[in-house]
Predict the structure.
Amino acid sequence: MMTVEQTLLDRSGSKCELCTSTSNLSVYNVPPNSDESADQSILLCDTCLGQVKNSETADANHWRCLNDSMWTPVPAVQVMAWRQLNVLKSEGWAQDLLEMLYLEDDIKAWAESEMTDDDSEEATVDSNSAILNDGDTVTLIKDLVVKGANFTAKRGTVVKNISLTSNPKHIEGRVNGTRIVLVSAFLKKA
Ligand SMILES: [Zn+2]
C-alpha cells in the first residue's frame, strides 16, 4: 500500500501543489480533516507551508503562483488556493482570481469552514449551513477516524443528543459509546 506521501508525490509530479517548487516538500493535512488521507492533504514546499501557517508573513508576489494552481482538479488544493486568495484579497489580482475560482458547494463549505471570523456570536452550523442546537440528531457525511479511540465512525452514522462546544466549528456526541468531538462541517442535521 502506498503511503500518503507517495500518493501525493505521484499526484503532484513531486512538486509543491501550490507553487510547483521542488524544495523541501512535506505533507500538509488541510484542516478541518476527518482523516489524514491523500484526499484531504496536499504537498507543500517549505515556503508555502511557512506562509500558510503564519498568514501575516504572506508575500503577495509568491502567491501569484495561484493563477495556475487554482485550476487544479484536486479539491484539497482548490481549498488551499481559495483560502490563500482570501488572505490576499486586498490585492486586486487576488480578488480577480477569487471571483473566477468556482468551487462545488461541498468544497466551498470545506474552504470556508476554517476561516477565522471576528464574530464570536457565530452559530454552529452543519454542512448545509443549518443551525445546530444542543440535543439535535446529526448524521456523519464522511468516514471519520477517531483519534485515540481506535475506530472509524462511518459515513451515515447517526449521532443523537449532541452538545454544542465553545468552538462553533465543533460539537460533541457519543459514537460507539465514546464521547467525541465532531467537526460540524462534516455533519448533516437529521
Ligand atoms: Zn510552494
Observations:
- The CA atoms of residues 63 and 172 lie 37 Å apart.
- The longest strand covers residues 170-175.
- Residues 75-87 form the longest helix (13 residues).
